[in-house]
């Protein structure tokens, strides 16, 4: 798993989602796969649902918007220095993975408070 995939997995799980971890099962007819979400259902490689990539920052925001503390997250992004909209776009939208990374760090810090 790459660092990026690890980050996506953490974000998915911190926001209540499921991250598929396919395990291979060899049969006389070839390899099949299963994940705990499919219990004992074995799928062909081409049938495996993809895990989210969050390449689009909108996907990160959509997941964060579902949370009651979404406003707190937005405030945290502006905490250290008030960001102008241009700075926000450059720092969190244009920079690949920056918003995802910020969200994971914030979610972990929030989880550690409980
Ligand atoms: Zn799964």
List the helices and strands and how they pair.
Elements: H1 3-14, E1 23-27, E2 30-34, H2 57-65, H3 70-77, H4 85-94, H5 98-113
Helix pairs in contact: 1-5, 4-5
The structure holds zinc ion (ZN).
Key attributes of the depicted protein:
single chain, 114 residues, two-stranded antiparallel ribbon
Can you tell me about this structure?
β1 and β2 (30-34) form a beta hairpin. This protein is mainly α and 114 residues long. It is built from five helices and two strands. The two termini are 29 Å apart. The model has no long low-confidence stretch (mean pLDDT 89). The longest helix has 16 residues, at 98-113. Strands 1-2 form a two-stranded antiparallel ribbon. The structure holds zinc ion.
Question: Cα-atom Rg, whole angstroms?
Answer: 18 Å
- Poorly predicted parts: none
Strand order of the largest sheet: 1-2
Tell me the strand percentage band: 5-15%
Instruction: Give the helix level as a range of percent.
Output: 40-55%
The ordered string of helix (H) and strand (E) elements is: HEEHHHH
Q: Identify the overall geometry.
A: elongated
Protein structure class:
mainly alpha
User: What is the first-to-last residue Cα distance?
Assistant: 29 Å
Q: Tell me which ligands are bound.
A: zinc ion
Number of helices: 5
Please provide the count of β strands. 2
Give the overall average pLDDT: 89
**Main sheet record:** 2 strands, antiparallel
């Amino acid at each position: 798993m790459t660092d990026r995939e690890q980050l996506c997995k953490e974000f998915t799980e911190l926001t209540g989602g499921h991250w598929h971890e396919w395990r291979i099962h060899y049969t006389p007819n070839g390899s099949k796969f299963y994940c705990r979400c499919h219990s004992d259902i074995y799928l062909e490689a081409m049938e495996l649902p993809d895990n989210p990539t969050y390449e689009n920052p909108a996907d990160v925001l959509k997941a964060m918007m579902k949370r009651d503390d979404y406003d707190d997250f937005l405030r945290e992004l502006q905490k250290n220095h008030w960001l102008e909209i241009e700075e926000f776009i450059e720092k969190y939208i244009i920079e690949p993975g920056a918003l995802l990374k910020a969200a994971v760090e914030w979610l972990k810090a929030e989880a550690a408070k409980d």
